[in-house]
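Subject: for your reference before the review

Hello V.,

The reviewers asked for a structural picture of the protein, and I figured it would be easier to keep everything in one thread rather than splitting it across files. Below is the amino acid sequence we used in the manuscript, unchanged from the supplementary table.
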Amino acid sequence: MRPLPAGPAAAPEIVYENADVRVVVFDVGGDDLVLSFSNMLFKANGNDFWGRQFYQKNGYSAVGFVAKGPNWFPAASMAPAIAAVRQTIEKFKTRIAYGNSMGGYAALKFSHQLGADVAIAFSPQYSIDPAIVGAFEKRFTTCFDPSRHAEMAIRPEDCTARAYIFFDPFEEPDKRHVELISAARPEVRRLGVPMTGHHSITVFAGSASGNLLLDCCKQDDCERLRGFIAQARRRNPTRASYIAERLVFRHPAWVGGVLAKAETAAPAHDLARCYIHIAQIHRDAKRLPEMNACADKAAQVVQTLSLEDRAFHRLNGVLHAAAGLLAHGRDFEAAARASRASVIGAPANTGCLRRLMRLELVLGHMREAIEIVSHLLHLDPALLETLQKDLQNRHGQTILDLLPTIAEAVRAGKASTPGPWLAGLLNQGGAGDPRAADVLKKARALFQDGEDEAAERLLAEAAKTFPDDADIRRALLAHYKNHNRFADIVEALAPYPRESLQPDALRLLARALIRTGRDDKAVEALTVRPTETAGDAALLASALFNLKRYDEAAAAAATALARDPDNADVVRLWARALRALKRFDEALPLFERARDLRPALARSHFELGLALLDLGLCEAACDALERARALDASNPPLLIELARARIRLGERGAAMDLLLQALRRDPGNIKAGVELARCAGALRRFEEIAPAMQALLARHPDNPDVLYEVGRVCADPDRARDLFQKALALKPDFHQCHHRLARLAHDQGDLDEAIRHYSAAIVQALHLAGYRLDRATAHLDRGDADAARRDLARALEIEPNNAKAGLLAQRAREMKPQTAAETTRLAES
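And here is what came back from the structure prediction:
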């Protein structure tokens, strides 16, 4: 796959949508196209689609089919969607259908209709019809709709012959689905990914793994895939969680050690769910201390995430469940902490508010409980009867007596709600004002309908009205981020002190500052507090590198790599910093590692080639640069560096061809023009390059380097002289131009003019013996042997073994001594 072309990034474009499906096209050319299908957790948001960041980062063209809910891509809705992109799909040589879970089902079901050569499905379903799979499938059958899902099962004619299904053979429902698919289409390749549960795709997380997956499936290399799975599943961050959930039944004492190991590797959302699941198992086994420890840990893990991440991974239910388990274990303080966190994440959730009210009462926090009651009645006056039942206990008796008075005050608008304490709590999540929540709800509805501009205007006004509302700010920033509007991100976050920003907001600000060229400000933002993640350290390294603080950039990149060893971008950044420090021997292994991690990326081979050139390994550099050229044949800088390598190998003819190609792709590339003129000068092939050099001059008429190089290859002496003189007017210390003008005057017999320009060139380049030898020649041609001897003596001091100096000295000795009159005349001249 070729990387994205240089210049403005290609933008995904919505080409079709209906009530169930949105179709997004991301076309960057190439031979290969990925047909991406979203899973049920993916939210349809503007022109986003499942896997977009991976495809953009690695240069894959893609067509994204985005389901607008857990609808399993109804066939009636898919037919017009496929028709809308048929012509786009047919442009590509190889088409790969790709999806996970619900998306995996669609990748198989519609692969034949889409003309896919390969289908890749992770943990797919055969059907969600309870009549077919109800005996073993309880997870997704509630999404079945008889009116839309009739005959939805995968039939033999639906699926392409080269289909790859990845699944956990110990996950019984997934295993049964795969057996049914295999019965319908026996040719499918089944690859087991044990100890991953329904999340078999996590084994292939990351760019390097994703590229390997696509390459192996294209080449039908199942053995290589199985070898990779055998290694990767042991490193899979969810493996420890999966093992812990099974150990709790047989060896509960071992669970703590396994989960402690998982904390450094497993994603936080998976780890939180694992802890809460194990806490529930301990509850059923009446092991209350262990239950409390796991439930409290689950709440702590969730609270390390931003509100946006909690909402995306649906973790508020984990907090609510943790509060219930902790209350069951009579750890009311910990239960109240978890419950408060759940209310911050879902300020309008009456179930969370009611649980918090009960816990505050148990803890004796009467004022806080009254504020919650007022807020609940404000949200839904019909809750009065429910609250009466909730408060019929010894803790709630006082409020029960006050309940009619509170209800009347709320009804009359006399009670301020939320009260000061609850408002302060809710403001931790940016939801203190119900009006802000209404605005956010409207904005999300507008985004869902594709009315991005209206949603943006609404959020921008709300950000001014509610400047402390974190959710409003977060939604506006997410919109700016999705559209690469980095200047707007910087402006939106400018009013807030850096120390007050959450880590995710600070990280986004730093990235926006880097993208807008304010790397010094990015460094300030990233050093407000110690870097927490590999991404933070990588951002810091990037900003420091842009500021040419290469030692610090290398140290930051090393820190990032220690936390994320397989991040090819960080490896390459570290290598570039070491190369800038001229530590070539240390940089080379890192460039090789970056190439191994991202073999389909032309830049990986390109930068490796440059590192090999630094060490003088020209043949190896040519090999690496040729591989880069095979992946991206239209990159002028790559062609120029390959030409330089060819020149160093003595292959000037091949280098000229490469440089001419570079100039055809970028007629204004000065570096290519300079190298081309030098090659042509060495080979005396001026006529071949004349058109390219004239085109370069037309684009850069006032560039002294271009004027000089065009003058060098110009066949007309008068034209060449004009170009050199113009270059000198623009750059008075251009000693090469003085030398060329001297040579032209010398050739035309104007020795005085020649000596004048030779002298000017010598003054500006005292270290070059060649200029003195040329002036000595002019002195000899004029008969001034003494002046020639002085130049020759100085030239031999600079280059003692210069053969030309010896020959000219012999000529000077053979000249007859000058008369006094001749000496006077020459001195005057």
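For the response letter, the relevant points are probably these. The two ends are 69 Å apart (CA to CA). Strands lie at 13-17, 21-26, 32-37, 61-67, 94-100, 118-122, 163-167, 189-192.

Happy to draft the paragraph if you're swamped.

O.
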